[in-house]
Each structure stands twice: as structure tokens, then as C-alpha cells.
Amino acid sequence: QGQLVESGGGLVQAGGSLRLSCAASGRTFSTAAMGWFRQAPGKEREFVSTISWNGDYTYYADSVKGRFTISRDRAKNTVYLQMNSLKPEDTAVYYCAADRFTTVQAMAARSNHDYWGQGTQVTVSS
Fold this sequence. Notes:
The chain is mostly beta strands and 126 residues long. The protein has one helix spanning 104-109; strands at residues 3-7, 10-13, 18-25, 32-39, 46-51, 58-60, 68-73, 78-83, 92-100, 115-116, 120-125. The strands form two sheets. Strands 2, 4, 5, 6, 9, 10 and 11 form a seven-stranded mixed beta sheet that branches. Strands 1-3-8-7 form a four-stranded antiparallel beta sheet, with no helix packed on it. It starts with a strand and ends with a strand.
């Protein structure tokens, strides 16, 4: 059984930065694509970014491209999301997810995933 635990959320002013972390434990995620999704109040969960099992491929939603960077440390079984130039519309609960045997684009298009974290709140004030 695998587990994903997010951390790093918080309150930040517009234009600021945060780095989210997603630590995977309980099983190896070395062959899993991983990604970040978010859900704002009253809205459906949406794709933010995904990264391939080896870190060679990344994929971003248009709304965050150029501002967010996803990365992973396979030795630590951890995925990161560096968020810069944050906007109030980035306010949401951010969830980490993992999928085995898939591509970054296919993972972005799916609503169900093999593993989900519990989420971490990001609030951007104007």
C-alpha cells in the first residue's frame, strides 16, 4: 500500500512563491508518473502539472506554464512543485497523485489516479 503526503502550503501574497512537496512512502514510486492537481472552492479539480517516472518529461496547464516548475528526487521518493509569481486565482487545495505505467499527458487527462494525497491548502492574497 502506498501513501502520498503533501506539505508546503500556506498563505502568501500575490507575486510571492511557495514550494510544495509530496513524499511517497509505503512502496516504491520509482516507475510511476506523478503530478499535481488542484481544487478551488466551488470548482472541479483541475490538472496543474505532471512529471514522468524518470523526470525527463514534464507537462503543465497553460494557466501555470512559465510560473510553476515540477521536479522529482527519485532517491527521496519526493516530488516538488515550485510556484512563483502566485496569483489569487491559484488559491486552491493542491493534491499530489501518482499513476503507474502512463505518460505525462495521459495522466493529466485522467480524473482518477492510482494514489492520491490528502491535499495542502494554498491561499494567495491580493
